[in-house]
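PROTEIN DATA CARD
Card holder: Aquaporin TIP5-1
Chain length: 250
Origin: Arachis hypogaea
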Amino acid sequence: MANNVTNRFHQSLTRNALRSYLAEFMSTFFYVLAVVGSGMSARKLMPDATLNPATLVVVAIANAFALSSVLYTAWDISGGHVNPAITFAMAIGGHVSVPTALFYWVAQLIASVMACLVLRVILVGMHVPTYTIAEEMTGFGASVLEGFLTFVLVYTVYAARDPRRGPLSATGPLVIGLMAGANVLAAGPFSGGSMNPACAFGSAAIGGSFRNQAVYWVGPLLGAAVAGLLYDNVVFPVTATTGVSDGLTV
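Structure generated from the sequence above:
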């Protein structure tokens, strides 16, 4: 048991593993920079951004474009998680080891904080926006909503990465990005449509408000885990005869 844990830890410190962490850092950094930056740009152009539907469209488009792009760049290196919830689902399903998942989390969280810090330093006088829930929603309701959104997103990730559906191509990242954008359009005014604990954490750390932060961790992590387990064990179970038991492993 101890040797197994030690071997897994050493495997998490190989050159390829370190490349994966760097890829996760860079892709998460650029994703958060685009998503949070789009919100700040909308507020700059529209002072009443919270009441203007155009703001929702801008952020949704930024989510879709940014996520598709960064996934494409990291797809063959780290698996393009860019999201602690996806990493959590992969770890629960046995696609990545726990030490590797923890290093992914560290890279993602640091990248998010750094991206928001860059925006805060460069855009002097502008406040870094944080994710908030609508007045008519409770914290529990918002967490459930974020959980459902993340479930759909992670299920799409699993389907897009599954080699049984055909060779991986640029279509996969594009489909995932479109789903993320659709989720923002559906839930942005209610919970913010984060689906990404790292993005919520970075903006909260630099924005100076961790209010309702648990909403953006509990819901997404549970939703992601359920999506991964459902895809692997119920909808498209992996069998010994398919030869793709490690098809989703990164």
